[in-house]
Design goal:
By secondary structure, the protein is of the alpha/beta class. The chain folds into two domains: 12-116 and 258-303, no CATH class; 120-255 and 316-400, Alpha/Beta hydrolase fold, catalytic domain (Rossmann fold). It is 42% helix and 11% strand. The chain is built from 14 helices and eight strands. The protein has helices at residues 9-36, 53-68, 72-85, 91-110, 132-138, 167-175, 190-207, 222-236, 259-272, 281-284, 289-293, 342-347, 354-357, 390-400, and strands at 120-123, 126-128, 145-150, 178-183, 214-220, 245-251, 327-333, 375-378. An eight-stranded mixed beta sheet has the order 2-1-4-3-5-6-7-8, with helices on both faces.
Amino acid sequence: MSTGPEPSGSDLRGMSRLAFDAIAGLIGMVETMHGNIGHRGLFAPRSGEKTSGITRLVYRSIRGVTHLAGASVDAALALLDPILAAGDPTPGREAARAALNGVLGDHLAATANPLAIPMRLRRNGQPLQPDKESLAAALTPLSSRLAVLVHGLCLSDRQWHRDGHDHGAALSGYMGYTTVYLHYNTGLHISINGRAFADLLQALAAGWPVPLEELVIIGHSMGGLVARSACHYGAAAGHDWPRRLRKLIFLGTPHHGAPMERGGQWLHLALEKSRYTAAFTHLGRIRSAGITDLRYGALLDGDWQDRDRFEHRGDTRHAVPLPDGVQCFAIAASIGSEAGDLRGQLLGDGLVPLRSALGQHEELHRALPIPERQRWIGRAMNHFDLLSRRDVYEQMRLWLGPA
């Protein structure tokens, strides 16, 4: 018995295009993000191309990877290697490589691809070795106050510098902190990065050339989740550095996830329900483990091990409390200009909802008990303005206190 009309060839082509367009849309959003990182923001009027030069070339190649898919991914990625490796690591090349790692970083790491970004501490784009001699030679002046800045998805440590401002440089110049920056592959699971970051902080604290009195971590977007994961794994391993950690500042961190990834998951689920579109769901599996962890803000290995991360389960992650004895602060952004602005309430900073960025949740065991005086909302501001707005820096400076 027939269960209904068979789809036409044009119907199937339309379904396949929907799957391709969904992934291409994600890549296009990331490219727009990089085009806007040096401009007025996510919702600024566009002028010309999203990106240019080497960055534009690499995004074209990433789109090629999406359309090739499957076994052709490695062949397409191989074409990018000489493009990104040639010459000095310019900010444009590093931005493009960071974007590629955000979208496909777990695949790059699993296949030992040279484009995979290794986790390192850096300053001015240069890697730091966490031993006393190397740190003393690379960092002057040295302070007993250390701030570590952790970037977000598809970004690099060099993108803390935006619109002529760098929070880390400002803290170093006016508040007496020595600042270093984490550079890492944002396509890996947050828990993998969290554990590695914890180990790196242990080495950094042990090798700090002067007595370390205060450690502060500032995380933008995914970087805040990596910092929370590191606190969990550092405490579990009995590391020394958590006892030096005084303050954690979150900038637009999706503590309870981001709608962008949940929307991608719903599309995957919808395609899977039909025998005519199920073949296209493998395209959705191109997106990295780091991206799928942002569905609800998964911080632990147990949130993804022995599970299909593309399966629709609802929020089954383990609740991870804030670290004991550490003051935690949350800065959220709203594209709305006033507190009651409906657009700001619904969209938050354009990528992360206000409640997620502030740690609020209807389930009490998941809600983060950040005191109201340690929460701040920037109005008429988007997700990337958090990297460069002067009022954001002034709020952090107020919380961090005098040198």
